[in-house]
Amino acid sequence: MAGEPEIITWSCWLRTVVAGITALFLLAFAGMNNGASNLLLSQLTKKDSLIPISQDQESWVGFEACAVVYLAEICATEQRSIVLAWLRALFSAGVLLVEVINTCVSWPVACLGFSLAAFAFAIAELFVPESPAWLFRQGKEEAAVKNLQRLGRSQAGVHLEIETLRQRESSTESLSWRTFLKPTVWKPFVILAVFHVIQLSTGCDVIIFYQVDFLASLGTTYDPVSVSVALSTVRFLSNITVGVYTNSISRKLSTAISGFCMAVPLAGAVIYEYHYRCVPCDRPVQWLPLTFIFAYLVAAEFAVNCLPGTMVGELYPLSVRGTMSGATHFAAHCSYFAYVKFYFACLRVLKIHGILFVFAASSFLAGLFGIYILPETHGKSLVEVERGFEGKTQEIDQNIVVPLSSINS
């Protein structure tokens, strides 16, 4: 019955997870790709490497991908936060897998295994159901209804989903200067672009890329490869526990908590590294800076290290969601490339304590960004999020009867 609230059943959950399983594991591949850069660098920089590379050449290794938009579009409002929260956990699992492989096999064997896995993944993608929102945008309303039913959505949920899609502009996706000037387009783009830059400035992704080199620069005598595996393990465990929980609560609150909790241990690491900057080896309490770094990366998984990517699938209107998500990821990857390329140059100038200070200041800024700028999306439908950028507060009429004969068939 139209007007009834949608009830998300276990069947709906199961069907959504099955439909999005390849998109979920695509994030694991993204983590493997990021971790692969660390695997390659740790082996190619050895003196007996088959392909020796210089420090400058190190910054040209790496790649990444995402499937956030698809998952955001196939999930109901109640499912979206939880499903998107698992993306970062799977990303961390991919990084951890590569770190473990790095201790067991050579990089040619590892790359062969990754290539075969990617081929199998491409075959599996052929069986993934299309996004109902995308089908609707292409004028295939009946197919969109059928796919919503395949996802286990209730009759009331299908009615509401189709009606909200009808209420929005559903023209063929296109991007022009006029489109970009709409507040529902340029506002989320600016917010997400700035959020990505702040997140990159906190150093989390740079540390993943140069994990072994970064750990060595802390001046401890611990084996950086072993510490790297431990670090990836802690990141993964924090993702599947605290990270999943905090992604199911307010975006603004979790970002503020995450940013401020990152800044505190980083400040401790700055003090330690600055105090012992003239002691190249045999430093006292060498476990302390590593503890600070571990705490900082766990806090990052609360929100700051995962929300910039997952919120891409939540903020844009349907008519330009694909295009603007691509534009956002392009801007983010350009920034990522710049940070990776200039890391060693900044390290030579600022030293490790200066780099950590930049990370700490950026983390504090991320907390403020979450409080004052980041829009709230938790518990809201994608249409409600879009209307927030329009400055409108009206709610969707749940009592509208939609004459969809295919739903009742």
TrEMBL record:
Gene3D superfamilies: MFS general substrate transporter like domains
Major subcellular site: membrane
Any one Gene Ontology molecular-function term assigned to this protein's record: transmembrane transporter activity
Superkingdom of origin: Eukaryota
Transmembrane segments: 12-32, 107-128, 189-212, 257-275, 287-307, 319-340, 352-374
Gene Ontology cellular component annotations, sorted alphabetically: membrane
Protein name: Major facilitator superfamily (MFS) profile domain-containing protein
